[in-house]
Amino acid sequence: MYINDLNSYLKNRFGKKIYKISLDAGMTCPNRDGTIDTRGCIFCSEGGSGDFAGSCSLSITEQINTGKTLVSKKIKNEDNTGQYIAYFQAYTNTYAPIDRLRTIYMEAATNKDIVAISIATRPDCIDAQIMDLIYEIHQIKPVFIELGLQTSNEESASFIRRGYTNKIFEDAINLITIYNDKLHSNNPIHIVVHTIIGLPNEDYPVMLETIKYINQFPIHGIKLQLLHILTNTDLAKEYEKNPFKVLSLEEYTDILIKLLENLREDIVIHRMTGDGPKNILIAPEWSKNKRNVLNYINKQLTLRDTVQGRCYSQDKGEY
Prior knowledge:
Elements: H1 6-14, E1 18-23, H2 60-71, E2 83-88, H3 98-109, E3 114-121, H4 128-138, E4 143-150, H5 154-159, H6 166-183, E5 190-197, H7 204-215, E6 221-226, E7 229-230, H8 234-241, H9 249-262, E8 268-271, E9 281-283, H10 290-308
Parallel strand pairs: 1-2, 2-3, 3-4, 4-5, 5-6, 6-8
Antiparallel strand pairs: 7-9
Helix pairs in contact: 3-4, 7-9, 9-10
């Protein structure tokens, strides 16, 4: 099984290993400010899924500089210099006045060490005005738009309080595609879709339907995320009140590989697991040891390829 992994894709595109710097631009979310809800998605932490991001009390440039210092020990090349993706991670990063968005995106895009911009957002927070700005930024540095889908199952989406229908997701994909058609190049604005493996009441066939759903659209990347139960979330309250099944490492890996086998081969794998902050992680406990998790997944991928006689290729870097 060929794994179209992010590390290899970035090395091929930029000529060297690229590191992500997670940023907090001080956004909120329509699922938190009362526009849709005030409680957020049921699984979302107080940090708005940006628990490893920088501090919003710092400027974007200051957060980038801090991030560079943190990853400097990982850099191993002739001149010990790195190139980075500015990852606007915390909360909904298109959910602000257009002038504010222009300021923060441009500050990142004009930084000499930043090679690309990654913007995590919601499909219901993308419109033509925002796409005009992203299209403009994309002329300076490549842009990745990361859309939180989580699941294509509408019942599950309602349970997790996603706050929008699949039709809204499809409309966002179609809008971005219109702008990609304008580019007439091999350098499109990349669409990366977030999914969650292990949502309550979702078995493998339901999760497979999400993959089949995603395969229909002109997306470029996917993040396959393990469900984490974190303290001070409504999911944690539900887990305490009505304990639901949490996948073991073996079960998760088995489902993950089956999903990968059904994913379009041109889609780049940006993540295969993910790790929650250890100080607020309730379950699954096994996910605290990221190195062990990745080693196990890699081993199982290799073993299955040996049995099936398929071609397997994966950079054992960060997912």
